[in-house]
Design brief:
8 strands; alpha/beta; 44% helix; single chain; Rossmann fold
Length: 284
């Protein structure tokens, strides 16, 4: 009998050690938690910022799963939005979702990322099928580049039609925020203050278009690079500035060599952090 129990325990131990979960979910403090807890909190939020690793398939799969689950309960009160689509493509987006152009025409007309087909098209297809509004929230790249090359004042010279695609000017900026200080330090001063400001105008514009497109009772699920919302800064700082009482839920994504626990450096990045093995395959 003892030999049998020992054999069963050994088999169980081998089976457990051979298990290879694709991800684990942790709270800000590093406590392991479940997807159902994340979904419950997301349903209570006005804005859910899903911070992704752009080339990670687990992020993109969970984005689609969360979209489906939120829609199942929020229905017409769900809104989607993404950094990956620029605000001056909103009309193209709306016409495509309304069935007024083919898939090929949409790809020809919109400024799509190279990984659109694998990573973002499933979200757009879901929005189109279920008539969910999808907001192109990011500043047109040419205007962010203008800030980098010529400074924030250069935006004042834009035609009024162009200014409709960015956050209202003048826009607030705090150079002491960790997210912008790190950009400045990593560049070792190259680009001066213009580099972090070109990032900040993206964050401000995304926050602006998120708020412009939600009303009371609605939830915006917004997809962006994790660095745009990590440490509860970036987009979140601007959301709170423009609308102080807004309820925001932040999700971050990280890769670690082991996912058995949340590394100290990754604690307090967001309300929930998705931890993915660093050996995970990439979409590009």
């Amino acid at each position: 009998m003892k030999k049998t129990l020992f054999l069963l325990a050994s088999i169980a131990l081998v089976a457990f050690s051979a298990d290879k979960p694709a991800y684990k979910l942790y709270t800000a403090a590093g406590k392991e938690t479940e997807y159902e807890k994340l979904l419950k909190e997301a349903l209570r939020a006005d804005v859910v910022l899903f911070g992704e690793l752009h080339n990670n398939p687990i992020c993109h799969w969970l984005q689609l799963e969360l979209t489906r689950d939120l829609f199942a309960q929020k229905g017409s009160n769900l809104r989607l939005g993404a950094e990956m689509f620029e605000s001056d493509d909103q009309l193209v987006m709306d016409e495509y979702l309304a069935g007024k152009m083919t898939d090929k025409t949409f790809k020809d007309e919109a400024k799509l990322w190279t990984n659109y087909n694998t990573d973002y098209k499933p979200l757009i297809d879901f929005a189109k099928k279920n008539k969910v509004p999808f907001i192109a929230s990011n500043i047109p790249r040419r205007y962010a580049n203008l800030v980098y090359s010529s400074g924030i004042k250069a935006l004042d010279s834009l035609h009024e039609d162009g200014k409709k695609y960015i956050a209202p000017l003048p826009f607030p900026y705090d150079p002491e925020l960790k997210c912008y200080k790190e950009i400045f330090e990593a560049a070792e001063g190259h680009g001066g203050d213009n580099l972090p400001k070109s990032q900040a105008i993206k964050d401000a514009s995304m926050a602006h278009f998120i708020l412009k497109n939600i009303q009371s009772g609605q939830t915006m699920l917004h997809f962006n690079g994790a660095y745009h919302s990590n440490n509860f800064q970036g987009i979140i700082w601007y959301l709170n500035h423009y609308r102080p009482n807004i309820k925001v839920l932040a999700i971050s994504s990280v890769e670690q060599d082991t996912i058995k626990e949340l590394d100290a450096v990754n604690k307090n990045l967001a309300d929930f952090t998705i931890v993915i093995p660093s050996g995970m395959t990439k979409t590009y």
